[in-house]
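Hi again,

Forgot to attach this to my earlier email, sorry! This is the prediction with zinc ion bound. I've pasted everything inline since the attachment limit keeps bouncing my files.
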Amino acid sequence: MDPELWRRRASLSPADETAYDAPMPTRATGFFLFLPVPLVLFLLTRAPLGTRASLGVSVPLMLTHRLYARPWALGRADRRCLWCGADLPPDAGSSCPELAVAEPSGRATWRACREAHAVPVRRVLAWAERRRSFLAVGIVGTLGLFLLWSAASALVGPGRGVLGLSFDDAVAFFRLGIAAAVLPLGWLAARTSSAAVGPLRSPFPLHVPALVGLRTVLWLFRLVGLLWLAQGTLQLVGRIAVLG
Ligand SMILES: [Zn+2]
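Structure tokens for the complex follow:
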């Protein structure tokens, strides 16, 4: 722990100490509110309920997530670190850096527990902002096309495919498109040497990474991106082999 935080902690009253020692409920709630994200991805790529029912469950989950996740994250934006998700010390005052960010859904002011955790947030946002179009096409474009493709597959029925392309082909396309977008974001963005100059801007809403910490989300991008790159490539190679 940062020496400065240890010093502050030593000066806390027993009541404050209890509050400071109990970050788990916030972390656990953030984790719980984040769960719909992997659940939706599981439903979309595995269709465990069948294509129609899986789409029917995952699309409302996606559309409603913002309604409860964003107010919860914004309500704790000045008390939690956007990078690591830790609660800030009760007497943090102005010693923890503020991160005012213009997001697609409006301005929000987040915090970091220390300058060393504000720096990677600024770097990731600067990297992502410079690649706004690439990320929009890679993530939103891939998701939109995949949903249309899946809905068409669901309408024609399992095993028949659309224009000769099956639901499995759509999943391969989805995994490869998302992996192509999130792998550079996960592996490169926090390592870039240039941070944002002037006001911070984000091409994506920050309430989702705020639930578990942006650092955790970048690790998910790195690991799931690699897994999906491998799975999507294997599916594609198998498909080409069948066609050949
Ligand atoms: Zn932190």
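The chain has ten helices and three strands. Strands lie at 98-103, 106-111, 200-201.

That should be everything now.

G.
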